[in-house]
Amino acid sequence: MDALKKIAESSLKTEIPQFAIGDTIKIGVKIREGDKERVQKRQRCR
Q: Distance (Å, rounded) from C-alpha 9 to C-alpha 1?
């Protein structure tokens, strides 16, 4: 289980930008399905 934590920690960003109410946030998540890879994008208003 420790190996999974190390991998997860290495892929997380350490700098998180500041945002406030009313800001629009765009998020891209990389998804792997077998040998295919794609980026799923989301946009939310906070």
A: 13
Q: Cα 11–16–37 angle (5° rounding)?
A: 40
Distance separating alpha carbons of residues 31 and 14, to the nearest angstrom: 21
Q: Which tops the pLDDT comparison, 13 or 41?
A: 41
What are the distances in angstroms from CA 45 to CA 8, 10, 15, 19, 22?
27, 28, 21, 11, 6
CB-based contact 46:22 (threshold 8 Å)? yes
For 1-35, list the strands marked E by DSSP: 24-33
Q: Which amino acid is at 35?
A: D
pTM above 0.70, yes or no: no
